Amino acid sequence: MKKISMTLSSSEVELTQGKGTVTASVTNASAVPERVVLGAFPAGAPNSLTGSTGATITDPLRTIDPGATVQYEVRFDTAGATPGTYGVKLIPYSADEAPEDYAELGFVVHLVVPEVAPVVVKKFPWWIVAVAAAVVILGGVATAFLLTRPPAVELSLSSFTPSQGSREGLTEVTLTGRFGSSTTVTVGETTVAATRVSDTEVTFSTPPAAAAGQVPLTVESDGTQLGIAIFEYVDPPAPTDGGGPVVDNFCLLNPSACVFFNENQFIEKFDTGQIIKDLQVQPFVQQ
């Protein structure tokens, strides 16, 4: 009774570009070590495989200890073979005996060599080249237009005059800088429209104030905030027979005239005539 047995990982080999592998697990069931050879033999009619099997086995002769199992990797290469299905029989046998004596222990592996699809030569798609050329030309024209057109004007506020006016209002203030088509000025909490004199100059009239003191002039042009100017309302000349009281803390007595963004109030004293840029706004404190 033969004391050698074998199992295969698969009875069919899936070939990729004419190549594939299968694993053979050979077990020695005897009580002594066995010198075992794994051989590959053609099964069926003669074929066009290399060596009639197309198989390569690394270290086909191995000594297997009692009760041990050894795995052999069998690599197949069917390159150049005629399309069809081929059988290769793998047989484990004792190195001291003939392979035919162990033929009943073998298994047939089926190799399928597919038909090679004919190569179809496609005509070169010249229309793609034409479309690509048109895109390049249009892109060049667009780039040239962007590079040659005048740069966009950056709006800004550079100065204003006068920086003081009567709290009765109607002081005409002139702003200089770069302005768009529509400019508004928020004096404290009151928004007034500015008159565009030129690209670099606009004017507006101040509304009346409840009391003297500093207020922010928030200037916006075409939806862009250009900066905050510090304007000061002053009391009209006191009558000769005496005037009213002097307001020492304007924001304390008139909080509505000092309100800024989101109901925040200035906490620092500003210089009349100062311009605060959008990125340099002084700190505020929530009322």
Structure description:
The structure is a single chain. The protein has 287 residues and is mostly beta strands. The protein folds into two domains: 4-113, Sandwich (Immunoglobulin-like); 156-237 and 247-286, Sandwich (Immunoglobulin-like), CATH 2.60.40. It is 9% helix and 43% strand. The chain is built from two helices and 21 strands. The strands form five sheets. Strands 11, 13, 14, 17, 18 and 20 form a six-stranded mixed beta sheet that branches. It has a five-stranded mixed beta sheet with strand order 2-9-8-4-6, with no helix packed on it. The chain is elongated.
Beta-strand content: 35-45%
Oligomer description? single chain
Class from helix and strand fractions: mainly beta
Q: What is the domain total for the residues?
A: 2
The value of Rg in angstroms is 49 Å
The average pLDDT is 81
Supply the CATH superfamily name of the largest domain: Immunoglobulins
CATH architecture tag of the largest domain: Sandwich
**What profile does the largest beta sheet have?**
6 strands, mixed
Distance between the termini: 103 Å
As residue ranges, the low-confidence spans are 242-248, 256-267, 282-287
